DNA sequence: TTATACCACGAACGCTTGTTCTGTGTCAAG
DNA sequence: CTTGACACAGAACAAGCGTTCGTGGTATAA
């Protein structure tokens, strides 16, 4: 990568500014930080970063920069995020809350996650785990599970199923066998559970699990 | 909350726009979307949202909006994010890679996470888990662990320790007892491991665990 | 010595974007 | 009927911001 030191500093400033301020910097803000007094020089260097595939620009739009850095974990662009409603809790003894149509961000808590973690898609919602019943899914009390609303599952999907007879929610990988359903714990040292298909109600598919071990400021 | 329908639509548009474009909308972009032809009316409604504590504004700054919505999981503001270097892998048979001073985002892969998940702080880095050896920490092969670089631990901290005699990395809660160290698995059904303090090298503290069950676009 | 590429810079301009001013309409309360 | 609050609207202006132009310096290769 043939970047000058100045270009590297510009790139680092952009990503840091974005993270702190929630908006991209202007050409003049970049210049002020890296000691370039001419907007033309900043413009020239930004065009180099575009050529190198590190940023994108939109013409004649204020703050029309966007980081797409080749070293980002994905190419989706870390500055974007999705908002996922946090609907409540998931616990063994209850069916999970599933979202109604057309939830707006004002109707309750929302979790913002970068698109590095999860792309935007329909039907996402989040639940907080209550109790130790998901341990066999390697999921702990207090973890957050992000799910996609769907009532069918492909073999191998990690799903939340409601077992009607047992009156219990469980998170396991689901496989259809000849006349029964195998619910396979994520923990490879544990044995599967077999259920009659009529007893199994798929409520959503798990797409992301998050465990925070640090208390956030209230 | 006394918002009109129009104000709610403005607020939803701002958060959605931010998530998609990676920058806040302008007053004219908001007006175009919610059908307000006058910048003065958009301005008036934005001031209501400020009064209600849903957004912040900076004067005479382009795109100087910021969502701080009372329904966000935290008040930090979901539009901001931190960038954490993804240094490599963590596996049982090797000490973990720890960051050198002053890593720049250009020097390798970076994970962007919203500050809803983790506040910005010094010494953060991420590792990808290799193998099933962290199962007792309820951590699976392929999970991402975000750690904070520190060589000391308080009782109860979830830490990565290198056991010198065993030549093994493990993730457990650490407690100092009279003459030994107790390493307690996160899985409450498992027994602790006791170690001589001289055998234990704390390499970092786990602050966040992420499990992606969905493949991201390459 | 000349040509080319890269890097740098100030200035000016055009457009984008936010703020302010003046005016109008509706509704509820007194 | 009057007053005040709220919501709306167009226009103008001020400030912010990106683009372009003309110019200059350095290094390298021919």
A few lines on this structure:
With 218 residues, chain A is an alpha+beta fold.
Topology:
Two copies of one chain form a homodimer.
Chain A: H1 5-21, H2 27-34, H3 39-51, E1 55-57, E2 65-67, E3 81-90, E4 110-114, E5 124-129, E6 144-148, E7 158-163, E8 168-176, E9 181-184, E10 193-195, E11 200-212
Parallel strand pairs in A: 3-5
Antiparallel strand pairs in A: 1-2, 3-4, 5-6, 6-11, 7-8, 7-11, 8-9, 9-10
The structure holds a DNA duplex (30 and 30 nucleotides).
Q: Rounded to an integer, what's the Rg of chain A over CA atoms? A: 23 Å
The biggest beta sheet of chain A is recorded as: 9 strands, mixed
* Morphology call of chain A: elongated
Q: Strand-residue fraction of chain A?
A: 25-35%
> Which topology of the largest domain in chain A does CATH recognise?
Umud Fragment, subunit A
Distance between the amino and carboxyl termini of chain A: 43 Å
Number of strands of chain A: 11
Low-confidence stretches of chain A: 73-78
CATH class of the largest domain in chain A: Mainly Beta
Assigned CATH superfamily of the largest domain in chain A: Umud Fragment, subunit A
Structural class of chain A: alpha+beta
Trace the largest sheet of chain A across and list its strands.
4-3-5-6-11-7-8-9-10
Number of domains of chain A: 2
CATH architecture assignment of the largest domain in chain A: Ribbon
Greatest interface: A-B, 73 and 73 residues
Tally of helical segments of chain A: 3
Helix content, binned percent of chain A: 10-25%
Oligomeric state of this protein: homodimer
